[in-house]
Automatic annotation (TrEMBL):
Alphabetized UniProt keyword annotations: Membrane, Transmembrane, Transmembrane helix
Record domain O-antigen ligase-related: where: 167-311
Keyword hit for Metal-binding: no
Protein name as it appears in the record: Unannotated protein
Keyword Protein biosynthesis recorded: no
GO cellular component: membrane
UniProt-annotated location(s): Membrane
Short name of any one Pfam family annotated for the protein: Wzy_C
InterPro entries: O-antigen_ligase-rel_domated, WaaL-like
Membrane topology: Multi-pass membrane protein
Residue ranges of the TM segments: 28-46, 93-112, 132-152, 161-177, 209-228, 298-316, 337-364
Length: 522
């Protein structure tokens, strides 16, 4: 999240230097981003979650107000700086990222990770994302850039062999991550590149046939996930089945507040109450804090208003892509890379988490496509002479002022969680249980810190401090199943245990908990 905030702040430095482009769909762009921001603000006000969760989200997800607001700013600024030359720089950046990520992922796979990152996935390469699924998606984006470069840029044999080997290495790493979404994303991106390459030579009838074929394949696959249609066997695959359960739970969660959602990162508190009966029967101990579908995540977070605003932006982007495909030449050729990676991002979002490291690519690419220059577009003419110099000077002073404000905003946003985390770490290192109990609830509260700290107090037999902490914790997080489990353990055999049992049954109605059925941490 720090990177995302910093990137947004830097963009403010240039915000006034670029005139808004004359884009045919600009009204949809500004309406979509405006509606997105409006929805976030209303959800922020209506949500009953702690203030810290509203601002930052939960640890590991971090999909709070600040993050989702920055996404919209990234798109608007990317739209303003987009050019054909900039698109080629993006390609080079993606390939350069791969030159670091691919060797590093290979070292992880072969057991030579010099960074000693915690890897719980049996040496599957996690890259810098801590998860092989996320790593496989980023690798697929790099693979798409390799495929595009092979088709358009690699002229001599050494270059072709280099990028072919680069692409093969990426395919190998995606394979050893055992993550289907990486190949799914790579395949779709390469198909878009192929279509972009030949679409100018296709007749209107063949373009229509391609569209129909694509839609049939997409909906056949989607129905197959629900064990329907000619690909019904897909629904029998465990990884697919569990995602269906997550999706259904996410839709149910959003339905609790259909217009403005249940709040930032609120899905995890609702999963047990919303999971379908089949999910409980299949594996009652399997839980999650995210629906594994970015569109359903947005619905659960901010309801219909938020997800509709996102689809408005996608609609505006598709409209711009259609306009780009009506032209030809090197400019359109460069745009095909942005389009292919963006479509791959949207496709993998059907089965993936809205992880920040992935999400920023989607929002930046959307802005670059929306602002991409088209031959028949009229750009705002720059002023000349002294008037131009005066305007530039005023814009520079305003930009510097905005940049300073942005840096201050970053400091005010990042300083509190950094300070509270350092205090918590210091209490653990000193072995001081009183300081530890005090540091658990420093603002901004962190649910993971509270859970971990209470467990430390219990393990060190500081029962009274743990009891005092858990009573305060369930007041702040009344829908946290894990905390109520801990509450029951600490107050077992007392009148307070009945309260814990009542709350546990409320949060997971399908498991009947009583004093003779002690719960275990899930």
């Amino acid at each position: 999240m720090t990177f995302l905030l910093f990137f947004t702040a830097i963009s403010f430095l240039y915000f006034e230097r670029f005139h808004p482009k004359d884009i045919s769909s600009s009204k949809w762009i500004y309406f979509g981003t405006g509606l997105w921001i409006f929805s976030l603000c209303v959800t922020f006000v209506l949500s009953a979650d702690p203030l810290s969760q509203k601002i930052y989200g939960t640890q590991g997800r971090n999909q709070g107000f600040v993050t989702l607001l920055c996404f919209a700013f990234l798109t608007l600024q990317s739209m303003r700086v987009s050019t054909a030359e900039f698109a080629d720089k993006v390609r080079k950046v993606i390939l350069a990222v791969g030159l670091v990520l691919v060797p590093y992922s290979c070292l992880q796979y072969f057991g030579y990770d010099f960074s000693n990152l915690a890897n719980i996935y049996n040496q599957m390469p996690i890259g810098t994302f801590g998860n092989p699924n996320f790593n496989s998606v980023i690798l697929s984006f790099i693979g798409i850039a390799c495929a595009w470069t092979l088709l358009y840029q690699a002229r001599d044999l050494p270059s072709k062999l280099f990028f072919l080997g680069y692409l093969i290495s990426i395919c190998f790493l995606i394979y050893v991550t055992k993550s289907a979404q990486g190949f799914w994303s790579l395949a779709i991106g390469c198909l878009v590149i192929f279509y972009s390459h030949i679409q100018a030579r296709l007749s209107l009838r063949l373009k229509g046939l391609t569209l129909v074929t694509t839609l049939v394949a997409f909906f056949s696959t989607l129905l197959g996930m629900f064990s329907l249609g000619p690909m019904s066997q897909l629904g029998e695959i465990g990884a697919v089945r569990v995602r269906i359960y997550y999706w259904l739970s996410g839709i149910c969660t959003g339905n609790q507040s259909p217009f403005f959602g249940v709040g930032f990162d609120g899905y995890g508190d609702w999963y047990r109450r919303c999971r379908p009966e089949q999910a409980f029967l299949w594996d009652p101990n399997r839980v999650t804090d995210v629906s594994h579908n970015i569109y359903i995540d947005y619905y659960a977070t901010g309801g219909l208003i938020l997800v509709i605003s996102f689809f408005i932006l996608i609609f505006a982007t598709i409209k711009q892509i259609t306009s780009i495909y009506k032209t030809s030449g090197d400019s359109t050729k460069n745009a095909s890379l942005l389009i292919s990676v963006f479509v791959a991002f949207l496709a993998q979002g059907i089965i993936s988490i809205n992880q920040i490291g992935l999400a920023i690519w989607g929002w930046i690419l959307m802005g670059l496509i929306l602002g991409y220059p088209i031959e028949n577009q009229v750009q705002n003419a720059p002023k000349t002479g002294r008037a131009k110099s005066s305007v530039v000077t005023q814009q520079n002073s305003k930009s510097i002022f905005k940049f300073i404000l942005a840096i201050l905003a970053i400091g005010l946003t990042l300083l509190p969680p950094t300070n509270s985390s350092e205090k918590f770490k210091s209490a653990i290192e000193q072995g001081n249980p009183i300081e530890l109990e005090s540091s658990l609830f420093d603002w901004p509260e962190d649910r993971a810190r509270v859970r971990f700290g209470i467990q430390i107090l219990m393990n060190s037999e500081q029962v009274e401090l743990a009891k005092r902490a858990i009573v305060k914790a369930v007041e702040i997080y009344p829908d946290d199943y894990f905390l109520w489990q801990t509450y029951q353990k600490l107050f077992m055999g007392t009148d307070r245990e009945d309260k814990a049992i009542f709350e546990l049954n409320r949060l997971d109605p399908r498991i009947e908990i009583n004093k003779n059925n002690s719960t275990e941490s899930k």
